[in-house]
């Protein structure tokens, strides 16, 4: 019997923003494994599945349980929000999967928050950009500071994941202070909360204003570069086309 774990990005949250391939694989799988919040987003659509659910910080346990169920013969879907290869489970499952040589691992891509959030704000990612997570659970803050400084100095558009939490209430303020070493406070910035979920909210402001805005783990932040402009209330970073 073929043994499979499908690592699936379910997109930002709403069913209509999940890829067709992801929905088809979830329908065919025997078991769905994931963090409770992500399971809640899809459970009504797949009520008859076996579920493996763990909490935050239990990612390694979750991946091992998924691999073990696949080893036993079940077809398993391991889900992440957004794209499983962008701050998701894809890397970890490959690292652990070396101990389960009989299990095939397949990654099914999804729409990451950088793409879905950018669409809500306009077109801020039309030129070079970078993604940086402000979570220091697995990356030292000193490393994050260096990445922010280098990205701002190079005039990248910057998209921030995990910009704040109860324990990291001032991390976005710190990040903005670093970026302001290289960018003007009038640079356009924006944020989107709960993308594709109940309570979705988007706002555009300046970088100077952004540093005073409260955010959480469900917020994605966009900071423009020196070329980013506002067009009819939308953030737009020009690609460089000649306008006739």
Automatic annotation (TrEMBL):
<keyword id="KW-0808">Transferase</keyword>
<dbReference type="InterPro" id="IPR000878">
    <property type="entry name" value="4pyrrol_Mease"/>
</dbReference>
<feature type="domain" description="Tetrapyrrole methylase">
    <location>
        <begin position="5"/>
        <end position="210"/>
    </location>
</feature>
<dbReference type="GO" id="GO:0009236">
    <property type="term" value="P:cobalamin biosynthetic process"/>
</dbReference>
<dbReference type="InterPro" id="IPR035996">
    <property type="entry name" value="4pyrrol_Methylase_sf"/>
</dbReference>
<dbReference type="InterPro" id="IPR014777">
    <property type="entry name" value="4pyrrole_Mease_sub1"/>
</dbReference>
<dbReference type="GO" id="GO:0032259">
    <property type="term" value="P:methylation"/>
</dbReference>
<protein>
    <submittedName>
        <fullName>Precorrin-3B C(17)-methyltransferase</fullName>
        <ecNumber>2.1.1.131</ecNumber>
    </submittedName>
</protein>
<dbReference type="InterPro" id="IPR051810">
    <property type="entry name" value="Precorrin_MeTrfase"/>
</dbReference>
<dbReference type="InterPro" id="IPR006363">
    <property type="entry name" value="Cbl_synth_CobJ/CibH_dom"/>
</dbReference>
<comment type="pathway">
    <text>Cofactor biosynthesis; adenosylcobalamin biosynthesis.</text>
</comment>
<keyword id="KW-0949">S-adenosyl-L-methionine</keyword>
<keyword id="KW-0169">Cobalamin biosynthesis</keyword>
<dbReference type="Pfam" id="PF00590">
    <property type="entry name" value="TP_methylase"/>
</dbReference>
<dbReference type="InterPro" id="IPR014776">
    <property type="entry name" value="4pyrrole_Mease_sub2"/>
</dbReference>
<keyword id="KW-0489">Methyltransferase</keyword>
<dbReference type="GO" id="GO:0030789">
    <property type="term" value="F:precorrin-3B C17-methyltransferase activity"/>
</dbReference>
């Amino acid at each position: 019997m073929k043994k499979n774990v499908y690592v699936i990005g379910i997109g930002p949250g709403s069913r209509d923003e999940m890829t067709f391939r992801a929905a088809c694989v979830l329908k065919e799988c025997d078991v769905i494994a994931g963090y409770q919040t992500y399971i809640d987003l899809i459970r009504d659509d797949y009520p008859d599945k076996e579920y493996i659910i763990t909490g935050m910080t239990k990612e390694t346990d979750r991946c091992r349980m998924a691999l073990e169920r696949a080893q036993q013969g079940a077809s398993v879907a391991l889900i992440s929000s957004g794209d499983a290869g962008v701050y998701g489970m894809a890397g970890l499952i490959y690292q652990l999967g070396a101990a389960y040589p009989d299990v095939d691992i397949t990654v099914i891509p999804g729409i990451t928050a950088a793409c879905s959030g950018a669409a809500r704000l306009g077109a801020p990612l039309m030129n070079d950009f970078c993604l940086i997570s402000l979570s220091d659970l697995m990356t030292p803050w000193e490393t994050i500071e260096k990445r922010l400084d280098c990205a701002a100095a190079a005039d990248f558009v910057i998209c921030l994941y995990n910009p704040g939490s109860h324990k990291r209430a001032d991390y976005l303020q710190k990040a903005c202070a670093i970026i302001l070493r290289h960018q003007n406070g009038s640079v356009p910035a924006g944020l989107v909360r709960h993308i594709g979920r109940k309570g979705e909210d988007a706002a555009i402001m300046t970088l100077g204003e952004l540093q005073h805005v409260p955010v959480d783990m469900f917020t994605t932040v966009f900071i423009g570069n020196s070329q980013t402009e506002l067009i009819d209330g939308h953030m737009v970073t020009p690609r460089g086309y000649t306008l006739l």
